[in-house]
Amino acid sequence: MSKNSPVRLALVGAGRIGSNHAELVARHVPGAALVAVADPTPSADRLAADLDVAVVEHSAQALLDRTDVDAVLITTPARTHAELVVAAAAAGKHVFVEKPMAVTLAEADRAIAAADDAGVVLQVGFNRRFAPGWVAARAAIDTGRVGTPQLLRSVTRDPGPFSADPARIPPGTIFLETLIHDFDALCFLNPGARPVRVTALADALIRPDAKAAGHLDTAVVTVEFDNGAIATAEASFSALYGYDVRGEVFGSGGMVTAGDARATDMTYYGPDGIGVDTARRDTDLLRSAYLAEFVAFTEAIRSGTPAPVTGTDARTALSIALAAVRSASTRGPVEVADVLAEVTA
To answer: Helical H runs in the chain?
Structure first.
């Protein structure tokens, strides 16, 4: 790749989050160009027209076969991610894949091995690592200002009211697709530590009528780390006040917090009291983080350096999520080592 030529990126999956990513890459990432979109639905044509992209493919493989594509952004449904990572690597394309990278450890290992064998960059979409507050929190931890991490907390509350059809939400989604962000964030904020034990409680408190079919919409997970730190992660599918993402690390030398539900730091004082505007979508609350992760992906491709969020990072978060799925079912603690051992058994 010429030093002055743009990294030519293509999108696989033109849904809500894919459309957000495509717009950022097409209009706001220096040194990147969106050259193609692939999706079997008319949404690909609409997105391509909006972003003035000439190439629309209706299959992922057709896009991967193109020689004018350097890298792909995979934003399809979660259970398709691993296979697409493997296919993209085989085609010599660098890969940005939304979380989760895979839903089983065997799939995760295949994806990581495929990228390693092909020598391509593999980056996973854990956007909180790029949000300014979370970056500053990690810096405070790295420089010792927090001391030894002892208690950690991460929160994800999706905006309500909850209106999705529970029958269309795969079992385990709250752990594999929502709390997966929190599991990665806890590892990010406890650098060098490994998760050893997971205990999860989950229920259908928002849609109790769907519980019998396996739907879970509210969860709290405790993660114990090998450095002694104890962490909690919680999630809800219906926060009526907006999209709420926060983290906290309490240590022997102090505490840091990161994240917010507020859309801006403006506070309104009026006749009915004091209020703030809250974000209603992740793409609004974390827009700068989404942009920063694509800038980092492009820079990794140009420089030939590893991605800042690797497949191994994604595998660690997945191991916690799988332990949480099992713990919620058994209502008891699960050793992460037992989950990891099964993939090599």
So the answer is: 16-28, 43-51, 60-64, 81-90, 105-118, 132-142, 173, 179-188, 282-285, 287-303, 311-330, 336-344
